[in-house]
Amino acid sequence: MDRISCAQSGYGTYKLSMDVKSTQPRNVYAELQDVANKVVIAVDSTMKKYERILDVIVPSSKKLLIGL
């Protein structure tokens, strides 16, 4: 992964943005801890920018989890 960030874009809404590529096709998994909306991104050998919106209904401290 080249760069990953999770920036708050509004109350309870977060935008996950990453520039990523892989030598082998694979899935990248991202989620905010204890939040139901998990993100799965299919990655290949071409560098691409991926953006997803994660909604948090109840404000609280969450960890951003990334899995390859």
Helix content: under 10%
Order of helices and strands: EEEEEE
Radius of gyration: 12 Å
Q: Strand order across the biggest sheet?
A: 1-2-5
Strand proportion, as a percent range, falls in over 45%
DSSP E strands, number? 6
Number of domains: 1
User: Number of helix segments?
Assistant: 0
Report the average pLDDT across residues. Answer: 75
Q: What oligomeric arrangement do these chains adopt? A: single chain
Q: Stretches where pLDDT falls below 50 for ≥5 residues?
A: none
Task: Report how far the terminal alpha carbons are from each other.
Answer: 10 Å
Describe this structure in words.
The protein has one domain. 0% of the residues lie in helices and 59% in strands. It is built from no helices and 6 strands. The protein has strands spanning 3-10, 13-20, 26-32, 39-43, 48-55, 64-67. The chain starts with a strand and ends with a strand. The mean pLDDT is 75.
Summarize the structure.
The protein has strands at 3-10, 13-20, 26-32, 39-43, 48-55, 64-67. With 68 residues, it is mainly beta. The chain has one domain.
Give the secondary structure arrangement, pairings included:
Blueprint: E1 3-10, E2 13-20, E3 26-32, E4 39-43, E5 48-55, E6 64-67
Antiparallel strand pairs: 1-2, 2-5, 3-4, 3-6
Features:
single chain, 68 residues, mainly beta, three-stranded antiparallel sheet
